[in-house]
Amino acid sequence: MPIRIPDALPATEVLESENIFVMTEFRAMSQDIRPLKVVLLNLMPTKIATETQIMRKLSNTPLQIDVFLLQTASHQSKNVSREHLETFYRTFDQIKDQHYDGLIITGAPVETLDFEKVDYWPELCRIMEWSRTHVHSTFHICWGAQAGIYYHHGVRKHDLPRKMFGAFEHRLVKPTSPLVRGFDDRFMAPHSRHTEVRAGEIEANQNLELIAVSDEAGVYIAKSTDNRQFFVFGHPEYDNDTLKAEYDRDVKAGMDPDLPQHYYPGDDPSRAPLSTWRAHAQLLYTNWLNYYVYQTTPYDVEKAGLGDDDLGGGR
């Protein structure tokens, strides 16, 4: 089944060129089914690239999904045109009275700042609080995961001595979780961050459970025990060349960055990197959408987020 996105969104042409089934708004109007409504709060500076990466993952499932792009009103993005934002993005005040099946909160390049010093932190807190009553399930990524687990559960982030940068091997702590159904015992995932949350602090919280970790990169996946909040501390949506683009950018800026680990063949940055995480990344998004959104969200989307007692005809 397709993903439904605005006809003129730049991601449409890219995804169609990859033979991904994208349904335009015009065609979707003729279908008499209830698609899932998913909001993407895009905090990344490279908004168009992030839109495309995440929509690629959402599109490769048997579900029809309506994606709504959300930006913060309290922060002005410098890396995307105002026309693009005004055409395709909404602000929180425009959607706050609506209910949604899913919410995705991306990472952001602000992780070295205290949460409270991020200029849009008060607005993000409003959105995360709103998600408790208006969203059935929320998927947090990288800094968004650190922000979410701190806001909802008080788990703090900690500075790292060096940037965690590369593609790392992970293992399952809870292999019986439907979120990682179909995963191999060992799998790869990319990380790009200067801070971390610690496994012991998650395990000490009775409202959280640890799903996957890396001996090198630390915590990768955790979730709330009520299945309403999911925290992924890497970047499963990354393309195979995204880490390369970050590395090349920092080299050009004279920052003398570390080489991404386990990424370039033979640790040679002149050789093209290969994706070693694409299949598990897709499975992660597909499992979240299937087991924790589609299978349990109420058919009446206006009841989404109201709690199990109010779900009524949930599926």
UniProtKB/TrEMBL annotation:
Subcellular localization: Cytoplasm
Chemical reaction(s) catalysed: L-homoserine + acetyl-CoA = O-acetyl-L-homoserine + CoA
E.C. code: 2.3.1.31
Residue sites binding substrate per the record: 163, 192, 249
GO MF term list: homoserine O-acetyltransferase activity; homoserine O-succinyltransferase activity
Taxonomy, superkingdom: Bacteria
Entry-linked InterPro entries: Class_I_gatase-like, HST_MetA, MetA_family
Gene Ontology CC: cytoplasm
Residues marked Important for acyl-CoA specificity (site): 111
Annotated keywords: Acyltransferase, Amino-acid biosynthesis, Cytoplasm, Methionine biosynthesis, Transferase
Residues of the site described as Important for substrate specificity: 192
GO biological process, one term: L-methionine biosynthetic process from homoserine via O-succinyl-L-homoserine and cystathionine
Pathway per the UniProt entry: Amino-acid biosynthesis; L-methionine biosynthesis via de novo pathway; O-acetyl-L-homoserine from L-homoserine: step 1/1
Transmembrane stretches, start-end: none
Catalytic center residues: 142 (acyl-thioester intermediate), 235 (proton acceptor), 237
Main location: cytoplasm
Family assignment from sequence similarity: Belongs to the MetA family.
Annotated function: Transfers an acetyl group from acetyl-CoA to L-homoserine, forming acetyl-L-homoserine.
The name this protein goes by in its record: Homoserine O-acetyltransferase
Lineage summary: Bacteria, Bacillati, Actinomycetota, Coriobacteriia, Eggerthellales
